[in-house]
Amino acid sequence: PVTKTSMPHSLSFKPSPTVPLAKDLAEVYAGIPDVEKRYEAITTAFETAYGGKPDFYARAPGRVNLIGEHIDYEGYGVLPMAIRQDTVVAIRRAPAGTPAACKLTIGNVEADKYPTQEFGLDPKQQVDVAKHSWANYFVSAYKGAFELLEAAKPDSVPEPVGLEVVVHGQVPTGSGLSSSAAIVCSSMLAVLAALGEDPAGVDKAAVAEAACKAERYVGVTSGGMDQAISMMGQQGVAMHVEFNPVGEGGGGGCQGRVCVSWHGAISMMGQQGVAMHVEFNPVRGVCVVLPAGATFVIANSLAVSNKAETAPKRYNLRVVECRLAAVLLAMGLGMACEEAIKKIRTLRDVEPLIEEKHGARDGATAAAAVAEVLQESYTTAEVEEALGGFKLADLFSGEPGSLRALSVAEADKYAFPLRKRAVHVYTEADRVLQLRAVCEDASLDGSTRLERVGALMNDSHASCADLYGCSCAELDELVGIARTAGALGARLTGAGWGGCMVSLVKDEQVDAFLDEMRDKYYKARIDSGSLPEAELGEVLFATKPSNGAAFITLA
Ligand code: NG1
Ligand code: MG
């Protein structure tokens, strides 16, 4: 659904296309204290482990999504911003002739929590999904770096070399702030540099896309938001990240152009990588200036959502549900079963059919079409019957993450609530565009603008909780406390089922807001000893849009 709005250019602009090579830490970490000390500690850990200095450092941040939840994998744009917490990867080529030259050695500054792991050099090695390890994310990035190079320059892919690595991450894990994208993106940049790529020429969007695909090796069929914002984020602005965007004149959807959905694009990349980059430019970021006078505050519910482990039951299951909803909706709108099975990958793919039948493709129209066509929920047998006997296992063959989700659903005798899921996606996609339009509408006065942004955030939370089923008791409680404490809007952020929420708070109220959140949610946990008081600042904090990924050279 695209509600076309007039967007004055003074309030939005494109980020620079290549990864910056910063010679000065202050350029990247403007205003953040103790960065030098942190890099010294990383360097010291590196020298202790490997007896020499790293050749390169690469960093990539986590993110908070302001609006647009669980729609990136359906091809819809989202509106996140990068946060200051990041992951740094220090790397060097292992000295030739040493045993280290035949392997990847992945260490961490926090070695007790994240012990050193070793892997072979084969870029085609499998990531062991059953054995969940922090270093799997590095291996995914390593594989992805080679895939990127194979697609971009098939005739001159470098030979694998032994790598020595030290990682330091600050993004809290399992909290919806995308620690995973931070480690995958920074690792991929570090590997590219170590393989001889000129850091100054690395294309941000290409790495974002390759990193999204690479992260799937850890077992989550994720969309591309996190890697895109981690790569392209820019200080001071949020970003409207779009996938397969249509030309400026377009009204959304495919508009007769060759248009491949995000998942379709990814599954095609192996054969058609280069053509995809050149012709479709699947990821685009547009910087969006957020309204003045208010601050985003992040609060962690402390319910941990370890997605790599719970993906089949939750996240991947939603991806499956959206696909089923899309295929059945397309059929309900007149597409033949066989064609729908073959062509329809995402709910966005159905937009042209919605428009053909209902004359529009905005969120409300799409939601009405869904209500008309889809029943509330479907058992596996009912979906297969609707598909003329076509088996779900065949529909998702070649998608291991989805197949695992299906088998869990089957074991649980789960019925897919397809109507709610589809309504969430279409209406949430619209809210992203509305929020951007509110930010860019110069005719609004400041407080109206803030109120509208807050209201959209509240609607988004309700939709996530009621229609998409990705909230949890702790998140709902936190959101309630935040609204009572004066937030203009509050919502879960990221995948949900735990992790963080984000609130919009007037600048002059931030201190009082933080106090009230502390008293009403965290104090009992501090008193009971489950939350060390010293860690409060890591679970409850105000945040500003920060810079995306960068290479760093230390003076
Ligand atoms: P987080 O919150 O980082 O697990 C996940 C997906 C996103 C997006 C959001 C929901 C990954 C790596 N990221 O983010 O692509 O779908 O959920 O909007 O799985
Ligand atoms: Mg993640």
TrEMBL record:
Report domain GHMP kinase N-terminal positions.
144-234
A biological process (GO) annotation for this entry? galactose metabolic process
Q: Which residues form the Galactokinase N-terminal domain?
A: 45-93
Q: Which InterPro entries does the record match to this protein?
A: Galactokinase, Galactokinase_CS, GalKase_N, GHMP_kinase_C_dom, GHMP_kinase_C_sf, GHMP_kinase_N_dom, GHMP_knse_ATP-bd_CS, Ribosomal_Su5_D2-typ_SF
Which residues are in the GHMP kinase C-terminal domain? 449-522
Q: Which Pfam families does the protein's record reference?
A: GalKase_gal_bdg, GHMP_kinases_C, GHMP_kinases_N
Similarity-based family:
Belongs to the GHMP kinase family. GalK subfamily.
Please give the name of this protein. Answer: Galactokinase
Organismal lineage: Eukaryota, Viridiplantae, Chlorophyta, core chlorophytes, Chlorophyceae
